[in-house]
Amino acid sequence: MEIHMDLPITAEKASSLKIGDFVYLTGEMYVARDAAHKRLFDLIEKGQKLPIDLKDSTIYYMGPSPAREGRPIGSAGPTTASRMDKYAPTLLDLGEKAMVGKGKRTKEVLEAVVRNHAVYFAAIGGAGALLSKCITSSKIIAYEDLGAEAIRKITPMRGRSVRLAKASRRRSLSLANRTSLLARTSRRRSSNLAKRTSYP
Length: 200
Prior knowledge:
- It is a single chain.
- The protein is an alpha/beta fold.
- It has six helices and nine strands, in the order E-H-E-E-H-E-H-E-H-E-H-E-E-E-H.
- Strands 1-2-9-6-5-4-3-8-7 form a nine-stranded mixed β-sheet.
- The longest helix is centred in the C-terminal third of the chain and has 22 residues, at 175-196.
- The radius of gyration is 16 Å and the shape is globular.
- 38% of the residues are buried.
- Residues 159-200 have low confidence and may be disordered.
């Protein structure tokens, strides 16, 4: 099923999705990769305030290339989600509701997704240039010294939102089966999506 969903994603919205759904996301989301996640995790362990609000937040695992003149951001394809697996359960327990990346997740992450009524979206790999055209604004809000891995806040354009596939559900499948089904679903459809994806 194709679904258009406004951010932020709440537990109720996440619970309404089913594995294999294709979701167009519109609204503000954070962009962060492993270096930024490590810094956030270190602050949490020290009991210090975070530079972002995690409540009902969506984090896109991405490090953009330099933006061309007149564009808010460069190529914006997803990075491998497993790099964030060490940190994701903690962030989910603190309020994060959605993650966007590519590839499988660990059992611990999937358990945290279920426990917190959250969701992991598998983005289309190899479509970074196309995805960048859907982003209307990009602003660094923390860790500018990390360059491409700084934390950003981006806004996908309404009607040209990022198209993603849901990666987990609450019922029937075991955690191991969820992971393998996600991988099969993503591989089976990615080549066709690259050819036929369009944005109204």
